[in-house]
Amino acid sequence: MVNSVEIKEVGPREGAQFEGINDPLHWKTHEKVRLVYALARAGIKTIEVTSFVSPRAVPQMADAENVSSMLQLIPDVTFNAVYLDRRGLARALATQKYKITGRILLSASDAFAMANVRRTLDQDLDEQRYLINEYHAHATPVTEGVVMAAFGCNYEGAISIQRVLERCRLLMDLARSAGDSLQDLCLADTMGWADPEQIRRTVDTIWQRWPHLRLSLHLHDTRGMGMANVYAGLLAGVQKYETAIGGLGGCPFSGVAAGNVPTEDVAFLCEKMGIKTGLHLGRLVACVKLAEDMVGHKLPGRISHVLVPSSDDFQAVKTGA
User: Fold this and answer.
1) What pTM, to 2 d.p., does this model score?
2) What are the angstrom distances between the C-alpha of 44 and each of 10, 36, 86, 222?
3) Is-catalytic flag, 186?
4) Using an 8 Å Cβ cutoff, are 149 and 186 in contact?
5) Above 60 in pLDDT, residue 89?
6) No. of H helices and E strands in the chain?
7) What is the pLDDT, as a whole number, of residue 91?
8) What is the DSSP string of 75-115?
9) Position 252 pLDDT exceeds 60
10) What structural domains and CATH numbers belong to the chain?
11) Which of 153, 168, 186, 251 is catalytic?
12) Is 13 helix (H, G, I), strand (E, B) or coil?
């Protein structure tokens, strides 16, 4: 079991991505930025703000540059952005607002990759090589890999652990061929297929092969297993989690959508287990209320329905950057 965890907040990006499927203008640009500032005031140190993807495919992310221009850097807080190809990386770099890490990614599901980025595995490998060249052009080594759909896929069904290990090996080979070495690996349960035993088995198997890797989990709650999977990850020794305030989110290319595990619920679980997060639970719940006002409906997180933030908590998260 771990003594402390690092939580990366992906709610602003995931929330805008999913809540805006039917109405791309549902979330105003200034509201997205306001939520980012509120989360920082709740103790979040790493926040995924937006995605630099095709505005034709994901019109709700068409304001990525506008969000970035409004964003003021905050001491000791890191802003990240998602990009899936070299064009997206170039757009993110141009804003000068995001920490660019040498991150490469592959899907464990070929069918999901085709739906998500319209690329075969060979095409995806070529795109990652182009990304690596761009990273090196900006003096950024490749140190992080992501395996999407690592636990199952709505298009292909169950994903074997052998397939996951193969994708891990491909990512490592890509980095090694460029003279770099992966140090971090994120396993993304993109469509919410994972169960606790699968989490334990996958984590254990990867660490048996590559014990130096720092693993993180990106979990969705599509089948009601999200928090159980967090618990399994904690018991297995995973110290980094990607979560979303209130349980915001969902992938528009997954065939069915459900949010990420809620940041405040993960923080509450860790608190009860004596695991340090560095987060302020009352302020996190105040952030949930802010997010609910923005989306116009209740969010699926649980602790926010029974814990009432103080007036000081509300005031703290409403204060500007």
Assistant:
1) 0.94
2) 11, 9, 28, 24
3) no
4) no
5) yes
6) 12, 8
7) 97
8) TT-EEEEEESSHHHHHHHHHHT-S---EEEEEES-HHHHHH
9) no
10) 1-100+276-321 (3.20.20.70), 102-243 (3.20.20.70)
11) 251
12) helix
